[in-house]
Amino acid sequence: MNQIEFKNRQIGEIVADDFRTSRVFTEVGIDFCCGGKQTVGQACDELGIDVSTLEIKVGEIKQKEINANLNFKDWSLNFLIDYIQNVHHTYVKNTLPELLFYTGKIASVHGERHPELIQIANDVKNVSEELTLHLEMEENVLFPAILSFLANPGNDTKSTIVSEITRMLGEHDFAGGVFDKINKTTEGYKTPEDACNTYEVAFKTMKQFEDDLHVHVHLENNILFPKALKL
Fold it and tell me: What was the pLDDT predicted at 33?
């Protein structure tokens, strides 16, 4: 691939072809999940990143032998849905209560000296409410509709698939945008000198949650949803 082709490719497509490249984009602050429809050139222009340097790093990753187990793009829709539910949905459901507790706790204890924690706690609460309903709709409406269409292509579930995916994309943008804001507010989840253990745990948990969210949204936005819309 020459530099012009690389520059004009969508970020989500590159990561969908080889998930290992996600590390390269993450390191330079390029969003490969919610921002996956951006071209490499657009993202580099916005962030002031040299395209040729990025291309070299991506090329070095792609030259290494790929682990077939991580080749998500080749997975069947049935298997991908099962993986997303069992890995990422389970993680979100288990972690959201912890996030709510820790962010609420540090906001009440440290909020006077660090008022940004109060806003962060409110943001996490809003994301929790949104994602809880979001997962329910995926598991009870969207995913069953996709599986039903796979089993019986002649049924009338295609309209459900299209409308649900349209809504899910907007909700992904909301959750991703909130955590992107938190990341910037905390300068990459850096804790201050007066941070207690709970403070440290809260920030570590938020970072882990955002990292998982990036992969979760990527699998849906850039692989699952496009495949489902082509059924």
Answer: 83
Angle at 32 between CA 117 and CA 14, to 5 degrees: 165
**Residues 67-73, mean pLDDT to the nearest whole number:** 70
94-98, 150-154, 208-212: segment of lowest average pLDDT: 150-154
Residue whose C-alpha is closest to residue 175's, from 124, 140, 112: 124
Q: Where are the alpha helices (DSSP H) in 68-115?
A: 77-83, 90-110
**What distances in angstroms separate CA 18 from CA 49, 135, 170, 223, one per listed residue?**
21, 26, 25, 12
How far is 3 from 148, CA to CA, in rounded Å?
42
* pLDDT mean over 51-61: 85
Instruction: Indicate the pTM of the whole model.
Output: 0.84
For residue 135 the two structure tokens come to 């997962």
The pLDDT of residue 65: 60
Q: Token digits for 180? A: 């992107």
Question: In this predicted structure, what is the pLDDT of residue 66?
Answer: 60
What is the rounded CA–CA span in Å between residue 147 and residue 40? 33
Report DSSP state, residue 66: P
Q: CB atoms < 10 A from the CB of 90, how many?
A: 12
| CA distances, 24 to each of 53, 71, 88, 104, 118 (Å) | 11, 17, 22, 33, 33
